[in-house]
Structure formats: C-alpha cells, structure tokens
Design brief:
- The structure holds 2 protein chains of 2 kinds.
- Chain A has 10 helices and 8 strands.
- By secondary structure, chain A is an alpha/beta fold.
- In chain A, the strands form 2 sheets. In chain A, strands 2-1-3-4-5-6 form a 6-stranded parallel beta sheet, with helices on both faces.
- In chain A, α3 (73-83) crosses α10 (296-314) and α6 crosses α7.
- The relative contact order of chain A is 0.13.
- Chain B has helices at residues 10-19, 22-28, 34-52, 55-59, 64-97, 103-113, 129-152, 156-175, 179-193.
- Chain B has 9 helices and no strands.
- In chain B, 69% of the residues lie in helices and 0% in strands.
- Chain B is mainly alpha-helical.
- Classes of the chains: A alpha/beta, B mainly alpha.
- Chain A binds chain B through residues 15, 18-19, 21-22, 26-27, 29-32, 140, 143-144, 146-150, 152-153, 155-156, 196-197, 199-200, 219-220, 222-223, and chain B through 55, 57-59, 61-64, 121-122, 124-130, 202, 205-209, 211.
Chain lengths: 315, 211
C-alpha cells in the first residue's frame, strides 16, 4: 500500500515537473522578466580572435553548473584542448538547459535544493538516485527543445546565448571560421536545435558531434553541415532517442533525420563496450582497451579530435 | 450509487463518466442538480484545455498580469461557442426527427462528454502533450457521438451525420455572416490581453533560416 502511494506521488511529481518545464522559456520569451534581446549585444571590449576553429561543448543532462562540471568531464575537456591545435577555442561554460543560461545553482528560487543535489552527485562516482532529480529536470528541457511548438523559442534563445558567448570569445561574425558543437547526451538535442540559428547569426557553416546524444529528428538537421553521432555499443540511453522520437524511425522516410542520413550528412561511429555515463562511459579515464593500452577517455578524445581536424580541413 | 433521486456531486459525476457504464451514465440525466454540474464540468474542461494550449498567449507575448484574465476570457468565449454548437445540433436533430427533447438534455450530454478534457492541461507538457490532448479531444467527440445516440435514441450513423452537418453549418456561418461576431470576439480578446491575439501563433515564432 505504501509503495503504491509512493508511486502515485512520484507520478504526480513527474507530471508537475513536465507541466512546469516549458514555463521558463515561454515566460522568458513573453517578456515576463524583462524584454528578451532582439539583437545580440557585442561586448564593449570586443577584440576579434585569431582562432581558426570554435568548438562549443554542451554538457549532458546531469549538469547543473557549467563552471563546475561533474567529473570526469573537466578532465575530458582539458585532454581534448591539449589534443587540438592551439588556435582552436573550446567553449565549455554554457548551461544548455536554461534559455537564459542561468545554472541551476545560480539565482533561482530552488537553487539551494539543486546545490545540495549537485554536491551529492559531485561526491558520488555512480549516479545518485536523489541527484537524479537534476537529470529529470534537464531531460524535460530536452523535451521542450524537441517539441515542435516550443522548439523555435527554446532553440533560438539558446542560440542567442551561444552567439553571445562566441562574441565574448572573439568570434567575428562573417569571418567564416568554422563552429562545431559537441553535444554530450541531452546536449546533442540542444546542439541540433540551436546550430541552424547560430549558423545564420554568425554567417558560417556549423557541424555537430554528438557524444551519445539523445536527439529528435529536429528540423535543424536540414541546416547542419554534417553531424557525427558517436555512440557506445553498450549505451542504452542514446537508444532512447531512437525509440522515443518517431522522426528517427526508418518508416518516416521524409523526416529531417532520414533525409540527412540518406544524403550522408549524418554519420555514426560505434565505440565498442562504452556506456553512457559512469563506469565504462565515453569519458571514463579508468576503463581501458587492454589490447591498445588506452583508456576509454583517451579513445573518445582521439576520435573527437580527429573529427574536429577533419571538419576544420573540409571547411 | 442511486443517482436518479438524489443530488450528485462534481466528483460523483466524474467517477461515473470514467466508469464507462452506460446505464449509470444515463441515470445521471435524472439527477436534480445535473445541469449546473454538467456546466461546471464543461467550464473546467475548457479552462483546462485552454491552459494546455496557452502557448498561444505566450507567443503573443501577453504580460503576466493579463495572462489569467485572458485565460478566463478565452474559456468563457470557448464555452459560449460550444453552447452555440450544442444549440445548432439540437435544432438539427429536432428539425430532422421532431423528438421533443428539451435543449437542457443536449447541454448535459455535451457537458458530460467533456469530462476527459478536464485533463486537457496536460497538453502543455513538452513533446507528449500534443498526442495526449489529441487523444482526449477524439475521446470527447466519440462521447458526444455516443451521447447523441443514447439521449435522442437515433441510429449511430444518423448521430454522426447530425454532428458533421452541424460542424459544417456553424463553420459556414462563421466564415460568412458571422464575420462581424468573430471580429468582435477577437477585439474582446485583444482588449483583455492588451495586445492583438494571433491565433496562428507559429507565424510569430522565430523561424529557421532559409538554406
């Protein structure tokens, strides 16, 4: 009986969370918290960068604070930076699950709750059931980005903030310097949603590397230069995108996903044995391919760096 | 539950409607207070559906102070339009069959048939919201169809024909001599919202750049 009550409470809580999910972006768009900017302001001390490639990293749904990513993400990003040419800028301080780039631990009513949960997750190697609330909250934002009604608002708003960051890092619009998104988990959906708007605003072609991305057949796929989907053969989470988003089913041949797949703009790379998160995941520095004597993290960094070099060369 | 002689509550009626037991549902029509309860269900169902579709108000950038008022205004206008449909349906069926059923019966039937749409607010949920609300709307139309057959005791095909004719007739009216009324309704919505309301909200949203 008690279990039944707990299940009922959990279902009710999920419905409330789902119901509240679009509110943040819609109220922001409606101007309830001040008018959203129509033009992305260029920083006053803007100085064009000499970088030849800009990489935007969007974290997965377990993220709550882009300035304090969960391990082993910081190590992964540092390794990636080291593997890339010096004139590549890697931007990793964007929170992709809020249209105003406000981290969960920032100026929010429930920031105290998210901070506690995030602290628990920070100190746990495995996924904590309590901290999983962050994942669910962010998962609903992924659903907002994938919903045809809300997607234009959410994705364009995200794109505005990403463009703002690119300008801060010295990206000169119209310079045709390539921009590549790396979207981990739910960050994959946000990447394919925001990329076309970023491409139009910055006047350059944009590519996406999905790292176990859970993605819909977003219309934005028609506007992306190319997308490479890296998936672990033991990653069941990225499979959710395949099952859950009807546009990815082969039967809907005219969906943007299937069109991009047929035209060769979507490629997939399988990573043997890798899971989505935690032990044996894409970023796990302690799991090894014994024959090759490299860690899963090194392998993933190697593949991503190779793809980034190719994208840059082909641009 | 003996429903015919005693007053029923809002929640009694909802429970009976989801029981899908036709005999008990028909017994509701004899409850002394069923008309106000059916109207309450209709109002709350339409309010719930309007909340589920409130992307229209957000896309039109209705300010939060006017948001609740707009929801109430839209629901009231929606309620009046559903009652107008009901009245037309009643006239159509009476003209065709001359069954001498009071208009009250069709109002109760339509009110009760809207019970599933009490969950219309779920339409606001991302991704799954639209399929859920479409399912609830189809469920409601089927209940109206079955209700018409049961209340007026006419064959299913004839009940369907009456509904289809009513919809076509009211839509034709709306697009011809009803235009001034439609314009007045838009004006009222705009007054309450503080901005003209574009119903086809997608035209207001950011668009993907051309390839």
């Amino acid at each position: 009986m008690e279990l039944l009550v707990l299940i009922e409470i959990a279902v009710l809580w999920l419905i409330i969370m789902a119901f509240m999910a679009p509110l943040e972006s819609l109220s922001w768009y409606a101007g309830w918290f001040g008018d959203p900017p129509d033009v992305i302001p260029r920083p006053e001390d803007f100085e064009p960068s000499t970088a030849e490639h800009f990489v935007v990293y969007l974290t997965g749904i377990s993220g709550a604070d882009p300035h304090n990513l969960l391990p082993p993400e910081p190590e992964f990003i540092e390794r990636l930076r080291a593997a890339l040419p010096e004139d590549t800028v890697v931007i990793d301080d964007i929170f992709p699950y809020s249209v105003n780039n406000q981290s969960l631990t920032g100026q929010r009513v429930f920031a105290w709750l998210w901070r506690r949960l995030y602290k628990i997750q920070m100190n746990t190697k495995h996924i904590s059931p309590v901290a999983f609330l962050i994942n669910i909250r962010n998962l609903f934002q992924v659903a907002v980005s994938a919903d045809n009604r809300y997607a234009p608002i959410y994705n364009q708003s995200m794109a505005s903030f990403i463009c703002g960051h690119l300008l801060r890092y010295g990206y000169l619009p119209g310079s045709n310097v390539p921009i590549t998104f790396i979207g981990y988990s739910g960050g994959g959906q946000i990447s394919v949603g925001a990329a076309p708007f970023v491409s139009a605003e910055m006047k350059t072609r944009v590519s996406v590397i999905s790292l176990g991305g859970v993605m819909s057949a977003a219309p934005g796929l028609d506007h992306i230069e190319r997308m490479v989907h890296i998936y672990g053969t033991r990653d069941k989470v990225q499979d959710l995108g395949v099952y859950f988003f009807a546009g990815r089913w082969r039967v809907f041949a005219s969906s943007s996903w299937n069109r991009a797949r047929r035209s060769g703009r979507i490629q997939a790379i399988g990573m043997p044995g890798m899971t989505h998160t935690g032990k044996n995941s894409y970023m796990d520095p302690d799991a090894y391919y014994e024959k090759r004597h490299i860690s899963y993290q090194e392998r993933t960094v190697g593949i991503v760096a190779m793809l980034l070099r190719r994208i840059r060369a082909a641009h | 539950m003996e429903l015919s002689s005693t007053p029923v509550t809002f929640f009694d009626v909802i429970t009976v409607m989801f029981s899908r037991d036709q005999e008990t549902i028909m017994a509701l029509f004899d409850a002394p207070n069923i008309l106000p309860i059916a109207l309450q269900i209709l109002f709350f169902a339409l309010l719930s559906e309007t909340v589920g579709q409130s992307i229209i108000l957000f896309a039109n950038r209705v300010r939060w102070r006017r948001f609740s008022l707009s929801l109430l205004m839209n629901t009231t206008l929606y309620l009046l339009s559903v009652l107008a449909y009901g009245f037309t349906l009643w006239v159509v069926v009476e003209l065709r069959y001359d069954l001498q059923q009071p208009f009250r019966q069709i109002v109760i039937m339509i009110g009760l048939a809207h019970t599933p749409l009490l969950f219309g607010f779920l339409g606001f949920m991302p991704y799954l919201g639209m399929p859920i609300v479409r399912f609830l709307q189809i469920y409601m139309v089927i209940l109206v169809w079955l209700g018409l057959r049961a209340v007026f005791e006419i064959p299913l095909v004839n009940a369907l024909a009456a509904i289809v004719f009513t919809v076509i007739f009211v839509e034709a009216l709306r697009r011809t001599i009803g235009r001034p009324v439609v314009a007045r309704i838009s004006q009222m919505k705009a007054t309450v919202a503080g901005t003209p309301i574009v119903e086809n909200y997608r035209t207001l949203l950011p668009r993907l750049p051309k390839e």
